[in-house]
Amino acid sequence: MPRLVTAYSNPLVRHARDLREKRRRRESGQFLAEGLRILTEARESGRVPRLLFFAGATGAHPLVVRLIDAVEGADGEAIETTPDILAKLSGKDNPGAVMGVFDEFGPALDELDRGAADIWLVAERLRDPGNLGTMLRTGDAVGAGGLILIGECVDPFSVEAVRASMGALFTVPVVRCEWDAFIGWLRRGPGQLVGLSLDARQDYRAARYDAPAFLLTGNEAQGMPDDYADACDLLVKIPMLGRADSLNAAVATAVMAYEVLAQRR
Fold this sequence. Notes:
Helix content is 36%, strand content 20%. It is an alpha/beta fold. Strand 7, helix 7 and strand 8 form a beta-alpha-beta unit.
């Protein structure tokens, strides 16, 4: 049975609010997710929050009822609260209907099964949470095996990245590692490393892609380092016919992923 919490000073409210800070997420190993669609995606993928916050009549919504049952069935706690507290947790004036506190998750690099999918996404020093969320959504859409984040990337469990993923954080495995660990792992088995580079000569549509293909996108502002490009089995570019010199990193990744998908199909 959900309990009612209406005070900002409640320890559970303070804990959830603190998860907006990266340091607090690292200390607790937990993160905050917002919105009925995202939490429903999480539940359907087998993950339920430790804490579930909802406001008033929202608790009667069939999907919220299922969330409450799932949380309480997993020994979590469902908390009825006020719209003002939900706004405080969200940082927005129009918060989602529900918010949840989840344990962080994700496989280690060595736990990935590279044969599980034909397409894998790899991002190097990705800094924008919106780009990360979009890449996760792209990964879900094309059936990618996962998203591998290289180096100092944005936190995939930040409120902004989780929100931008629209639930794909719960369906696409995310691994964080350094370049040396990644390239060492990759070369111990099959896998074509495909780099997207403005300096490449080959058009992305003219290239042939092998499975599994690991699509490497560099930093939004600087691109990928030269030694990363040198390590690629294939470098391709997307032609730019207008005045812009490049596409957004997440958009370029999506264009590439769908070309590989089209070839594999």
